[in-house]
Amino acid sequence: xxxxxxxxxxxxxxxxxxxxxxxxxxxxxxxxxxxxxxxxxxxxxxxxxxxxxxxxxxxxxxxxxxxxxxxxxxxxxxxxxxxxxxxxxxxxxxxxxxxxxxxxxxxxxxxxxxxxxxxxxxxxxxxxxxxxxxxxxxxxxxxxxxxxxxxxxxxxxxxxxxxxxxxxxxxxxxxxxxxxxxxxxxxxxxxxxxxxxxxxxxxxxxxxxxxxxxxxxxxxxxxxxxxxxxxxxxxxxxxxxxxxxxxxxxxxxxxxxxxxxxxxx
Length: 265
Prior knowledge:
Layout: E1 4-9, H1 14-22, H2 28-39, E2 43-48, E3 68-71, H3 83-98, E4 101-105, H4 107-115, E5 119-122, E6 128-129, E7 132-137, H5 139-142, E8 153-156, E9 159-160, E10 162-166, E11 172-176, E12 184-189, E13 192-197, H6 205-214, H7 216-222, H8 229-245, H9 248-251, H10 253-263
Parallel strand pairs: 1-2, 1-3, 3-4, 4-13
Antiparallel strand pairs: 5-10, 6-9, 7-8, 7-11, 11-12, 12-13
Helix pairs in contact: 3-4, 6-8
């Protein structure tokens, strides 16, 4: 996998990432780089954050050098229209024109779907707070290279309040669970072949627990996901039980499979 250039897009606002660092939590881009290093050290990785750039001039002239792009998570909600979100959608459209292979994770999938003409809404069935249970691969997904060697039903780290409502034209739906009908998708737009995941194979459950503690007040008072500290503790205990039975290899298979797909180009 030598000499492959990879663009990692950071979806969080700079202020959010600074808060992460103050609380000892790696940014999503850092988590992704660490997970990629588990499989290979032979990637030339650049990180770009569309939210913190006034323009894309420093990256667009050389964007065709990237063999692939991974766009990760964010605490933003795409239907809350603001300049930072509009900037990310605009940058995704530029990526569609220039990068052949895209892995879009959680927020990244929501940006990709929106940029390609689909839509995203607040999930009516609740949220994933640190974990998504019983994701089931459908008939389309069983033979898709994204899920090579993956169990048909599995749990995964996840943290999202929203879901894809309408898929882009020509998109193939690959997996679901009770919270999100669209847990993964494959579609093509312009020059790009996009694999999208609503969950986070690249983030550890330990980091998810850190995020729950970091966002505790919002989860209780604003998001209304938990009644009190005791409910949060019970949920963390549930995730800790999952850690004991979870295996890193099976948890990150989607990342491995996308890297193999990238290598095969």
